[in-house]
Amino acid sequence: MRVIDACAGSGGKTLQLAACMQGKGSIIAMDTQAWKLDDLKKRAKRAGAFNIEPRLIDSTKVIKRMADSADRVLIDAPCSGTGVVRRMPDSKWRDGRENLNEIRTVQSDILERYSKMVKVGGLVIYSTCSIMPSENERQVENFLNHHQGEYELVEDKQIMPSSGFDGFYMAKLKRIK
Question: Is 90 exceeded by the pLDDT of residue 157?
Fold first, then answer.
């Protein structure tokens, strides 16, 4: 199986994927920040995860070249972080309304472009650490409306901070055409 962690950062999710895959298949860990991928390389070496290939997104061509190539694409999109306020209480004092529109635009763009990396029959997992519907359900709704007949929602789940954990949203989308 070929898995793409499209917003890999320093690799926490990537390393978890590698452990789940037990060294089989390949994981392409992508990010726009080279220093994060450098950290990932060190962490992967320490963990003995040798099926990870870090790849810098330094142009739109990187994403286009990966079209129709993955069985799974994980998009842990940049977000407002409203689901992790409990861990970072000072963030609730910052008024991020002016940034929220920009964040939603980035999320929409990432979901639109990165979803094309999955093969027909493959899955795209879209997730955020936000509890705001405009970053979650509505992003997925808009995407599906724009791609009617190409993708379908398999399932989605919202975890609220009131459950004793951080708040998260996850949606599993299957490419059908």
Answer: yes
